[in-house]
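go over both lines:
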Amino acid sequence: MATGVFETPKPDPFGGMPRSLALSLPSAPGGDQAPLPPLPDQMSEGTLSKPGARVDIPYADEPVNPKVVEDSVPTALPFEFKTSGYKCVTDLPEALRPWRDRPTSWANVTPNSEHVYLDGKGVVQYRPNKTAAGYDQPVTQIQFGLGCITSYRTEKDAARKALFLKRAKAQADRLIEKRVEARGAWYFPYPFNFTHAAHSGITYKAPWYSGMAQGEAISLFTQLSQLDGLTEQERTTYKAAADGAFASLLRADDARPWAVNKDKNGYLWIQEYPINAPGTSDYTYNGMIFAMFGIWDYFQATGNPLAEQLYDGSLTTIRDHFPRLRNTRWFSYYCDTHRIPAPTYHQHHINLLRQLHWQTGSPTIANRHDQLIDDFPAYGLRSGSVAAIAAGTHTLYKLDTLGAADSFGWSSSKADKQLATKKVTFSKATQAPVNVRRRIMGRGIYYRINAGAYAGWWIGEAFPKAFLRGEYVSTTYLPQRTATFPANVEVTCVKFGTDGTTGSTKTVKFAKESNAPFDRRAVVNGRPMVRITAGGLNGYWAPTAQVLTDGR
């Protein structure tokens, strides 16, 4: 029971700021999840080169025998590893399933860019530049194929639908054609040398293999086999291909090729860049999670208990290594070995952890996701975004950044250096157009004013003195999560009005800890908040600074 509910807390916290601004949301912009960044290019931070003339890749040269492939799938795990009992949620809504957020656009169904193009059979080829020869690159082919499958599911035009399916099958068929069979498993070789200078300085000699490709191939084959529009022979072949790829995750690193191993502490890893010398693999986070999506797809389709155990072990690894992934109040690290901050991968880590929460319902994983958002939130704002600024004196800052469009506005050479400050005083509350909301290195969250007398200056986020109007970096949770209101602590919650219509507040204080479900987290008018979905606070937003969210 609440010991007190006060509609208008005293003293009024909104001195200098009209309640119509502080307690209302504009009709636009904001209100949705941060846009997805482009898929990471596995080759972007290294150099490709042609292998020597004597390199012989042992491609399989026999037709696929589905029964033989099925019988070759191991019936035991490759080794013991740490687990936690995580279970896969297999009845996810369609929109939350792997790769549904990554459709191939119709404009890109026949790509021809600096690095990718289609060969005569409609298969993606990867090239260092437009004048260089192209190569089969499994991850690029797989991700393109998965995007085509996603588009096929939603496309209404029959001709477009047929081409999306044709493209997806072409990628899968090339992988099958170029497979290497070893130890009863299928592997998908990289037929070029690759030096990943940024993270290892090691040259991977053709043929080399990637656990990321192995796991993503399982997704491609499994999802393709579930579509209509296939012949029964095609469906059987793709199911067999999924079995062959899955078998590779059940083979240890005691022979070559391999894709999974365990570290000295007993944690399972799916290695994006497997290296035989102990301790030299990158232990890369994003590549492992993308591979886990293939395991989820395979378990959803087959119910194979080994798949769920692999998923359990992989998620246990991600959870327990999160302190090494996280870089508090900055960009997260790319891999466990080299721990280099990765601006281009930080938003991917956020999106991937969100999907792991959907796939398991784990509040711990959801909490890790929340921490990454707070460390460095998605920074771009829609046109028309405004910051409300209270009456009084404020400090503005000139900062050495790259602006809104380039490299997350930050560079190591500029390092967000403070160039100048300016004191400004407003006799009444005002608003300013802004186009960036991001963390400044070594500081808090700031807004970049992009028009008017103070264009190019930054102001710090400090509700209710200066805050971005609207709802941003939103996440919807499935299943819902739990917020705990501490005992004997006043918490002021808000039900927001719209476009200047003043909302309402409720300040509650409970004699004992009290739990409430929430379904959404967002930065609302400049504060991280959660939306309560039951009880007397149903529809109200509670500040995360005043409640405890589950999974900590």
Remarks:
- Residues 1-9 have pLDDT under 50 and may be disordered.
